[in-house]
């Protein structure tokens, strides 16, 4: 599974963690991805979406139908 948002294609960021003695080691920041059942082309599909896309209503979540 690629750690990438299916909507905005946000992926990992790489940088340096710098210690007090100025030693630099590689650090990776991963996006906050959630598996969401969303409507894509009229069909409910499970996609990996970052929380920024969920919060900004870029993704339309599938309305759950309850059986009574």
Itemize the secondary structure elements and their pairings.
Elements: E1 13-18, E2 24-29, E3 33-40, E4 43-50, H1 51-55
Antiparallel strand pairs: 1-2, 3-4
Describe the structure.
The protein has a single domain, classed as Ribosomal protein L28/L24 (Ribosomal Protein L24e, Chain: T, Roll). The protein contains 1 helix and 4 strands; from the N terminus they run E-E-E-E-H. The chain has one helix at residues 51-55; strands at 13-18, 24-29, 33-40, 43-50. Strands 1-2 form a two-stranded antiparallel ribbon. Strand 3 and strand 4 (43-50) form a beta hairpin. The longest helix has 5 residues, at 51-55. The protein is elongated, with a radius of gyration of 17 Å.
- Terminal CA distance reads 36 Å
CATH topology: Ribosomal Protein L24e, Chain: T
Low-confidence stretches: none
The overall average pLDDT, rounded, is 89
The radius of gyration is 17 Å
Instruction: Tell me the total number of β-strands.
Output: 4
**Largest β sheet strand count, sense and barrel closure:** 2 strands, antiparallel
Number of domains: 1
CATH superfamily: Ribosomal protein L28/L24
Report the β-strand fraction as a percent range: 35-45%
Structural class given helices, strands, pairing? mainly beta
Helicity level = under 10%
